[in-house]
Write a structure and sequence with these properties.
Length: about 450
């Protein structure tokens, strides 16, 4: 079959894979190829054992794979054939040198830009999908333009707003698609080509075009605002625990104000995921680099509050379990950073597990999707950790349960059965406020919700 356009995506991760599957599904006349340096990952994209878990993703991939969706490690060939290249390689927080712990590590992005130049022989549109610090496109354009071949590359920023666990739905009906380009004729044309892709299924009024820098910055700001809401309610959860107010009632009452809205104000043991912390720290770094220290401090507090919330959770477990958890069996219900994903990047489960192990607790990690990643995250740590997919087996002889992830399966457990096999007194620390606390208390548990009065039999 002759395709009208060749689209390439470099980076077959959480963003690149699902986004390209959706484009392929909705644009059968385009050929979509996803390449990655990681052979094993590509192998899995070509199988039914996809490298990431996302509801609905396997069906979407199966519907397009082999027709107009291809996964491959042939990066140079892919670049040569492409009209449009989405770059979706990872941009983690730098762990070394200038800006360590704050700035984005752009080495993969830069390497990719050089690869694009060396394997291209005609003009292409390059789309930034990875979240990048403002003005990265400028640097990329420089690298791309400094080519002796005199090829024109138009760089467009098209940040991804999908959330894990709901990626397929978010891609199907996005709140908006943002496309930033240079305010020149060729920049506008490039933006239009990208808008045409999305126009196959996204209503025109949801496709927003802006200048390049606004698009880049909007992604950081959107994530910073969302995370800020979570830190705000988490700060209030600490106050609630001192005052007998109930943070869920406050979320409901406050969120009923349509100006505030009800989403992203559920108290938790803290936000995780690959984006929030990284993007805020990046924003902080950018502000500091422009000498805007007050602005930087303001946003940095959002991350500090998140760490405080995780610490508070562990301190509460230790205090309520009579100030020692040595050799006590504690079951972490969930390890993914949120429900419906197997992703554990920046999961609050990680610091919680590390702190509990440092206190010499004996841990059982239970998660329906994230055990493989949990093992990797905790590899090499000293201490007693077991991994168990079946919650009923996990809780045998346990002293305490700590809810880390809001999976539905945990809400539906038969807690009478759970209680019967646990040590007594039995404790529940609900880091997501998903369980029926009154019911647990009636069964006999000592219950410690977040931001609500504790229910104890002592
Ligand atoms: C990534 C970025 O982390 C995020 O900032 C951005 O918003 C979207 O892209 P994600 O898809 O979650 O997010 O990253 P990850 O799952 O790590 O996937 C990146 C892929 O790029 C990996 O499979 C990696 O092997 C690949 N890669 C990385 C390359 O193919 N080439 C490289 O040079 C570097
Ligand atoms: C986020 C953004 O939502 C998305 O637009 C962007 O593209 C990538 O970053 P993601 O990290 O996948 O997506 O998940 P999200 O649903 O935003 O949740 C992030 C974290 O916040 C999770 O740990 C979640 O459990 C937590 N959270 C969310 C809360 O603690 N309380 C809430 O009310 C909402």
């Amino acid at each position: 079959m002759k395709f009208s356009k060749n689209i390439l995506c470099i980076g077959a991760g959480y963003v690149g894979g699902p986004t390209m599957a959706m484009i392929a599904l909705k644009c059968p006349e385009y050929k979509v190829t996803v390449v990655d340096v990681n052979e094993e990952r590509i192998g899995r994209w070509n199988s039914d054992d996809l490298p990431i878990y996302e509801p609905g993703l396997l069906e979407a991939v199966r519907a397009a794979r082999g027709k107009n969706l291809f996964f491959s490690t042939a990066i140079p060939e892919g670049i040569r054939a492409a009209d449009i290249i989405f770059v979706s390689v990872n941009t983690p927080t730098k762990t070394f040198g200038l800006g360590a712990g704050m700035a984005s590590d752009l080495q993969y992005w830069e390497k990719t830009a050089h690869q694009i130049v060396s394997h291209s022989d005609r003009p292409k549109i390059i789309v930034e999908k990875s979240t990048l610090p403002v003005r990265t496109a400028e640097a990329m354009e420089r690298i791309l333009k400094e080519n002796k071949k005199n090829i024109r590359f138009d760089v467009v920023s098209n940040p991804e707003f999908l959330a894990e666990g709901s990626a397929v739905n978010d891609l199907l009906s996005p709140d908006r698609v943002l496309i930033g380009s240079q305010q020149t004729e060729s920049g506008a044309q490039a933006a239009q080509v990208i808008a045409d892709i999305y126009a196959h299924w996204v209503p025109a009024d949801k496709i927003i075009t802006t200048n390049l820098w606004s698009a880049e910055l909007s992604k950081l700001v959107a994530n910073a605002f969302l995370a800020q809401r979570i830190s705000s309610i988490n700060a209030i959860s600490a106050l609630c625990e001192k005052t007998d107010a109930d943070v869920s009632e406050i979320s409901f009452a406050v969120g009923s104000d349509t100006r505030i809205g009800s989403r992203f104000i559920s108290a938790s043991i803290g936000f995780g995921g690959s984006c929030f912390k990284k993007d805020i720290l990046n924003l902080v770094y950018i502000c500091r680099s422009y000498g805007l220290n007050e602005v930087a401090d303001y946003w940095e507090k959002v991350v500090q509050m998140n760490e405080y919330q995780q610490e508070r959770f562990v301190k509460k477990i230790i205090k309520e379990m009579f100030n020692t958890i040595v050799a006590k069996k504690i079951v972490l219900l969930g390890f993914a950073f949120k429900a419906n994903t197997g992703d554990t990047r920046e999961s609050p489960g990680i610091p919680v597990a590390k702190k509990l192990l440092a206190e010499r607790a004996s841990l059982v990690i239970c998660d329906p999707q994230a055990l493989e990643n949990a093992r990797r995250e905790l590899a090499g740590l000293d201490g007693d950790v077991r991994y168990e997919a079946d919650p009923y087996r996990a809780v045998i002889d346990a002293h305490a349960i700590a809810v880390i992830t809001e999976w539905d399966v945990f809400k539906e457990l038969d807690f009478e059965k759970v209680f019967s096999v646990m040590q007594k007194p039995a404790f529940v620390f609900d880091g997501r406020n998903i369980l029926d606390h009154q019911r647990l208390f009636q069964i006999g548990f000592n219950v410690f919700p977040l931001g609500k009065p504790s229910l104890t039999h002592f």
